[in-house]
Design a protein that fits this description.
rod-shaped, about 75% helix, mainly alpha
Length: about 200
C-alpha cells in the first residue's frame, strides 16, 4: 500500500509565503512536493502494470521492462532530490560560514587605541555616511542661524520704534529735565504755601 502526501507543501504554505518561514524552508517544501508528485506518478504507473494480462512471454518481458523503467525513474527522481538537497545544504553552510566569519571579525579583541579610533569614526560617520555628531551639529547650527536672524530683525524693529518714540517725546524729556533740576537734593526748593482761597 502506498500513501501519497501530495500537496503537503501547499498545506503549509498556501499560495502565499507564510510570514516567518525562511525562503530555504519554502524551497525545500517545494522540492519535496515536486519529488512526491513525480514518485506518485510513477508508482501509479507501476500499479497499473499489475492489471495488464500477458498472453505471451514477450508481453511479460515488455511489462517487466516497463516496471524496471519506472523503478529506475523513481530512483532517479529521488536521487535528483537528494542532490538538490545536498547542494542547498552546502550553499546554506557557506552562507552561514560567511556570517560567522563577519561576526568573528567584529568580535576580535581590539586594543584601547583601536576601540577609541573606532568609536570616534562611528561618531563622526567616517565609515559609512555622516556620523550622528556631525548631523546633530548641522541641525543645531541651522536652527541657531534661524533664531539669530529672527532676533536681529526683531531687535532692529524695536530699536527703530524706540528712536521714533524718542523723537516724538523730545519736549516731554526737556520738561522732565527741568523738573529733575528743581528737585535737586543739594539745593532744595523752599516750601511755598498754597492758598486756595486767596
Amino acid at each position: 500500500m502506498n500513501i501519497r502526501f501530495q500537496g503537503i507543501g501547499r498545506m503549509y504554505m498556501g499560495n502565499n509565503r507564510i510570514s516567518g518561514m525562511m525562503k530555504s524552508t519554502e524551497q525545500k517544501l517545494e522540492r519535496q512536493e515536486k519529488r512526491d508528485s513525480q514518485v506518485a506518478f510513477f508508482e501509479s504507473r507501476k500499479d497499473s502494470l499489475k492489471n495488464i494480462q500477458c498472453g505471451s512471454a514477450e508481453e511479460a518481458a515488455r511489462v517487466l521492462e516497463m516496471f524496471h523503467t519506472y523503478e529506475d525513474q523513481i530512483a532517479a527522481v529521488k536521487q535528483e532530490y537528494n542532490r538538490e538537497q545536498l547542494m542547498h545544504s552546502l550553499d546554506e553552510a557557506k552562507e552561514r560560514g560567511e556570517q560567522l566569519a563577519k561576526a568573528i571579525e567584529k568580535s576580535e579583541y581590539k586594543t584601547p587605541e583601536e576601540r577609541k579610533k573606532e568609536m570616534a569614526e562611528e561618531a563622526m560617520g567616517i565609515d559609512e555616511e555622516k556620523g550622528a555628531l556631525s548631523e546633530s551639529l548641522e541641525e543645531i547650527t541651522g536652527k541657531l542661524e534661524e533664531l539669530m536672524t529672527e532676533e536681529v530683525s526683531e531687535m532692529t524693529e524695536d530699536i527703530a520704534k524706540v528712536q521714533e518714540e524718542m523723537k516724538m517725546d523730545a519736549p516731554a524729556q526737556e520738561a522732565e529735565k527741568v523738573l529733575l533740576q528743581d528737585m535737586d537734593p543739594e539745593n532744595p526748593v523752599p516750601y511755598k504755601r498754597l492758598d486756595v482761597f486767596a
